[in-house]
Specification:
Elements lengths: L5 E7 L6 H9 L6 E8 L5 H9 L5 E6 L4 H11 L4 E4 L5 E2 L3 H12 L3 E10 L4 H11 L5 E4 L2 H6 L7 E4 H6 L11 H11 L3 E14 L2
Parallel strand pairs: 1-2, 1-4, 2-3, 6-9
Antiparallel strand pairs: 4-8, 5-9, 6-8, 7-9
Helix pairs in contact: 1-2
């Protein structure tokens, strides 16, 4: 059986308010050759039931469950289950624009880059105005187009996973995974991955929708 082009991994813990919008936004992507891997990290609300109901409508959705072990373990479980040559991430309270997978895949393939970062649309909920400015400043793309990877780019790129597309071959070759039991596991993964890259492309399109409430 042919592997899909992209594995989209969603770690989830108690996100019953948002998980349906998250999964449906990926299921409705304009680019269809994907698998959607949801890892439920021992949710105690209805998140898992909601995901299972949506799964009945889309055979590309794969659900993995585990006792509550933290997001790093959930991310590692998703990586182990992923079969595609390209990896993308989505937090369970966020969602994709409908052409995110299509645009990210086209950019990484056409540019022959090792990683692509897109712009982010931030959805605010009761966030102080000064904090909004900090968030916008942090997530603003610092560059556009393709560049050779260097220390300045690594330091000045945001540490988020969800606005990027990664190559599975680089993850495997570098044996890159998430350190379990620590905070900022995403920053560690992203930085180690970038150290193993030769090039990066920046896509100035706001394709990812990031909810921020504090």
């Amino acid at each position: 059986m042919k592997s899909p082009a992209i594995s989209v991994i969603i770690p989830c813990y108690n996100r019953e308010r948002f998980i349906a919008d998250c999964i449906k936004s990926i299921s409705a992507q304009s680019f269809k050759d994907i698998e959607i891997i949801l890892v439920d990290d021992g949710s105690t609300d209805s998140s898992l039931d909601i995901a299972k109901n949506i799964q009945k409508q889309d055979s590309r959705i794969i659900i993995s469950t585990q006792s509550n072990q933290g997001v790093a373990t959930a991310r590692n479980t998703g990586l182990k289950n992923a079969t595609a040559p390209y990896i993308m991430w989505c937090d369970s309270d966020d969602f994709y624009d409908e052409n995110m997978c299509e645009r990210m895949l086209a950019t990484i393939q056409h540019s022959k880059s090792d990683i692509v970062e897109c712009a982010t649309k931030v959805i605010y909920d009761n966030l102080d105005e000064s904090l909004k400015q900090d968030v916008e400043r942090y997530l603003r793309l610092k560059m556009v187009n393709k560049h050779k990877m260097n220390d300045w780019i690594i330091i000045n790129s945001d540490a988020s996973l969800w606005n990027k597309i990664y190559k599975r071959e680089i993850v495997d070759k570098g044996n890159i995974c998430f350190p379990e039991g620590v905070v900022y596991e995403d920053a560690y993964f992203n930085d180690v991955y970038m150290v193993n890259c030769e090039s990066i492309s920046f896509l100035n399109e706001r394709l990812y929708n990031y909810r921020r409430d504090g």
